[in-house]
Amino acid sequence: AMKAAGGAAAAGAGGGRRRRRRRGGGGGGGAGGGGGRRAAANARERDRTHSVNTAFGALRRLIPTRPADRRLSKVETLRLAASYISHLANVLLLQ
């Protein structure tokens, strides 16, 4: 009985996720007609990524660092920005 229960638990241990299979059409959508949507989605993603990276660059320029020319990662930028905002708020409250 123990062996069967353990086997059932092991069989269901995948978390319930299943992969979807793509229907026909082959690789990237040549004559199938779906390629235009994929290309448009890729273009939107490139635009979104460019927009996010531009915003991070603008934020990086506003955060003081030592040395001044040090390039911050995205995580460092967000953490230091939050810390810097908190510091500026405290400075304003003390005046």
TrEMBL record:
The protein's predominant localisation is nucleus
Extract one GO molecular function annotation from the record: protein dimerization activity
InterPro entries in UniProt: bHLH_dom (IPR011598), E-box_TF_Regulators (IPR050283), HLH_DNA-bd_sf (IPR036638)
According to the entry, every stretch annotated as the BHLH domain falls at 36-88
Q: Where is this region: Disordered?
A: 1-53
* The keyword Calcium appears for this protein: no
Q: What are the Low complexity biased-composition ranges?
A: 1-11
Give the source's domain of life in one word: Eukaryota
Q: Which GO terms describe its biological process?
A: developmental process
Q: Which Pfam families match?
A: HLH
Q: Name one GO cellular component term.
A: nucleus
> What is its subcellular localisation?
Nucleus
Q: Which UniProt keywords apply?
A: Developmental protein, DNA-binding, Nucleus, Transcription, Transcription regulation
Gly residues bias spans: 25-37
List the PANTHER family.
BASIC HELIX-LOOP-HELIX TRANSCRIPTION FACTOR, TWIST, BHLH DOMAIN-CONTAINING PROTEIN
- What is the name of the protein in this document? TCF15 factor
Q: Could you tell me which species this protein originates from?
A: Haliaeetus albicilla (White-tailed sea-eagle)
